[in-house]
Amino acid sequence: MSSPSVGDPDFRPVVVIPVYNHEHAIGIMVAGVRAQNIACVLVDDGSEAGCARALDALATAHPGEVFLVRLTENQGKGGAVMAGFREAARRGYTHVLQIDADGQHDPADIGGFLAEARAHPAAIVCGCPIYDASVPKGRLYGRYATHIWIWINTLSFDIRDSMCGFRVYPLAPVIALIDSVAIGRRMDFDCEILVRLHWRGVRVRNRPTRVTYPLDGVSHFDVWRDNVRISRMHAKLFFGMLWRSPRLLWRKATGA
């Protein structure tokens, strides 16, 4: 399999998939990624033995195309994705396409995301979910409170959906950010990193994508703990927005 980045040193994308006990879905996800002619980094976030064996088998079966990073203790989604960022940078990739392990996202959309990222290499390409009937209504309606907070904390509507884990990042500003700021390491990660990159002037491109809930029925969202984390994150970002607000408003007014 050849990489879609061959011949383009300024755009070398790789897929990063954080994995925590998704042994029943991850094989299908990896097959979908490989069908799009792109390598992937699997980050084993302290999974149990059955999932760890499945990941070992995938990496062994696809040398040079599927890379495995193993975290000995569970770090949370954000911790796993950031480990994937660092591995991608170490291997010389310029962009990371993040996709979830549980089958929510359609790998057939990868090509469109990468085409948009190639056309706008300095921007984040952020998924905007198109749900089918499988979406839990509580999760669907609960997202709107977060959307409102993100719009407040960026003083813009640039980020249409901050919770979708299907997106393409330019690695250089991401590595600079995570090297200098402590980002939430669990379910608060997806929202916080987008806001902080937006504060730093990284543009956001919003792209529709189909979302289905999920192939193996495994969800690691803890309703109590993760909602508390997300609420704390919004409060922290709000106070961060206040002292940045003159610059954010100036940027909005001038289009800078």
Instruction: Provide the β-strand percentage band.
Output: 15-25%
How would a crystallographer describe the biggest sheet? Answer: 7 strands, mixed
- What's the architecture in CATH terms? Alpha-Beta Complex
What is the assigned CATH homologous superfamily?
Spore Coat Polysaccharide Biosynthesis Protein SpsA, Chain A
Structural class: alpha/beta
Report the average pLDDT across residues: 88
> Helical segment tally?
8
Terminal CA distance reads 41 Å
Query: Helix and strand succession?
Result: EHEHEHEHEHEHHEH
Give the tally of structural domains.
1
Protein name: Glycosyltransferase 2-like domain-containing protein
Domain Glycosyltransferase 2-like: 15-139
Organism: Arenimonas oryziterrae DSM 21050 = YC6267
InterPro entries: Glyco_trans_2-like (IPR001173), Nucleotide-diphossugar_trans (IPR029044)
